[in-house]
What we know:
Mean pLDDT: 89
CATH superfamily of the largest domain: P-loop containing nucleotide triphosphate hydrolases
Strand content: 25-35%
Distance between the termini: 33 Å
Order of helices and strands: EEEHEEHEHHHEHEHEEHEEEHEH
Number of strands: 14
CATH topology of the largest domain: Rossmann fold
Number of helices: 10
Shape: elongated
Structural class: alpha/beta
Largest sheet: 6 strands, mixed
CATH class of the largest domain: Alpha Beta
Helix content: 25-40%
Strand order of the largest sheet: 6-7-8-3-9-10
Amino acid sequence: MNVIEINQLSKYYGKARGIIDVSFDVQEGEIFGFIGPNGAGKSTTIRVLLALIYPSSGSARIFGQDCIKDGPEIRNYIGYLPAEVYYYDHMRVIDLLRYSASFYRKADKNRIYRLAEIMDLDLNRKIDDLSYGNKKKVGIIQGLIHQPRLIILDEPTSGLDPLIQQEFFNLIREENQNGATVLFSSHVLSEVQKLCSRVAIIKEGRIIGVEDIKALHNNNYKKFKIQLAETVSSDYFNIEGVADLTVDENNHTFLFKGDINQMIAKIHDHRISNLIVEEPALEEIFMHYYEREA
């Protein structure tokens, strides 16, 4: 069953491009990544899903219901964290969160205290005294108070320190294990790699691929670091399947896609001081995916 179904969704701001013919599905119970650089159209897609803005064409459905026509009903079951959070400055955090909880029939106000403990947030401080990172914590708790069936996160970790980021990831995994479906939008690919099973890749308003995270790794490049005990020409490893070749004296570093035996044969007749073969970072894979699609 699909929790989110997006079909040829487009949004224009006058003549300016927002998103163009965006289509993808998010299955019930999965953590789905939505990745692309800033300005690619991630937030626009999410705002259309939430009926915060209306599409120019196409359709989007959540829980089988139309996102625009049935928006008020659907939003009872959605937890949303926007990329930027803004609040009434003079309220205390606890008062703001209790007020937020009052909008939901099933919200457990005691849950506020558990989430605040996990996120290390002082509930008695005023909003205008909080740092950007602490305001983001308020947004996270606000989005999870009512135990939503669908959690939509737009660049959720900006402003959070690394320790709190890890607590946040653990919290989202726990919510997912308890039945929540998650749409996780980010330009930080290592975050998506930690949480998601599938990703939609967006560039300049268009979806250029929907991929399995493991497939992105397994069907892509391996990273070679070869230190030879002798000198060879600088383009010795510049063969088919090699990308991003850099040479520093006898150290050769590159990405390779192809039959690994071909590379072993290439170095067979040379003495090797060191050899490292590893998975490249998802960022490196992502850049080559973009270049290939271009």
